[in-house]
Amino acid sequence: xxxxxxxxxxxxxxxxxxxxxxxxxxxxxxxxxxxxxxxxxxxxxxxxxxxxxxxxxxxxxxxxxxxxxxxxxxxxxxxxxxxxxxxxxxxxxxxxxxxxxxxxxxxxxxxxxxxxxxxxxxxxxxxxxxxxxxxxxxxxxxxxxxxxxxxxxxxxxxxxxxxxxxxxxxxxxxxxxxxxxxxxxxxxxxxxxxxxxxxxxxxxxxxxxxxxxxxxxxxxxxxxxxxxxxxxxxxxxxxxxxxxxxxxxxxxxxxxxxxxxxxxxxxxxxxxxxxxxxxxxxxxxxxxxxxxxxxxxxxxxxxxxxxxxxxxxxxxxxxxxxxxxxxxxxxxxxxxxxxxxxxxxxxxxxxxxxxxxxxxxxxxxxxxxxxxxxxxxxxxxxxxxxxxxxxxxxxxxxxxxxxxxxxxxxxxxxxxxxxxxxx
Length: 423
Hints:
By secondary structure, this protein is mainly α. The chain has a single domain (23-417), classed as Growth Hormone, Chain: A, CATH 1.20.1250.20. The protein has 15 helices and two strands. Helix 3 (47-55) packs parallel to helix 7 (156-182) and helix 13 (311-337) runs antiparallel to helix 14 (356-384). The termini are far apart. Its main location: membrane.
């Protein structure tokens, strides 16, 4: 440790001690970017492959009813578990919480393998979805706390982009599998080999947190140590939920952003991609969608970390960019949606049709927007605190809880009662 102190980035305004970072291989292992990259690979193997399975349509099954019911169970328990996930993370520690959270994804994908082998195992798929909901709340609370606590203020946009790029490789890989299977095939469901491959990868994802560094030993690139809760009681952590809202009321202003952040998936995947394209086109659309997310997160990170602007100016500038993207994509989508209804959609557009070009570009822009929106939301939370415990509350309560509540109606309401234009 150096013999001087310097006031930097403390949440309470006090000076922080500057520590000397380790050198060589140890320095590489304990580098914040290395740990955020490992975190990205956990999410690549677990929620990334979850996205890949769901992107196959109904979990890759011919009958999508069981998958829809499983998702209702998933997001119901996710909404409940997300409320307490930050407290659990701060009590158990982020490494253990991350590992516990990853188990649910392995079980969920395994349930689809089970129903492929035993068609009557629908109840197991639904139960696996409910368990995954609880696990997902834990994983995302730990992920958000670590990803936002490790970088300095000047690095948060770049670190979020690196994480988001690695995480979305899971969706890219899954979409590539779907595209390869369906490019010349008319089969409607996924074979056992695909599920087994995904199951092995999620198993690897469970192991990765074991090899990650202890957050208490992490030193940022500016020499400041990462602040982690020191074995707080459950009572203290549950009370911390209330304290977080009282001491940081500005988080309430982000609630509308959280409400909007996942709602659009149902229209994009079911009422656009799943409604007017054939299986080959849907598979290619999925691939370019998740690929565009990687570039979207990298693009917005340039603005979020731009040193020529103050942090306040970057926040306002990013909001303007998001607003322009919202208007562009939704007006574009509105004119396409006016061209068909549930009764007239015939899933006939192929990649060789002239009209496909414009429609796939809309899907690409949707991917850009999703990554920009999610990355900016994380950056806003990271700008409010560097404390891992407080960030776990932010992500666990706000991101997990509100994302899940907004997903529920989109899966549980029968499609026949909803107008696609209304969605």
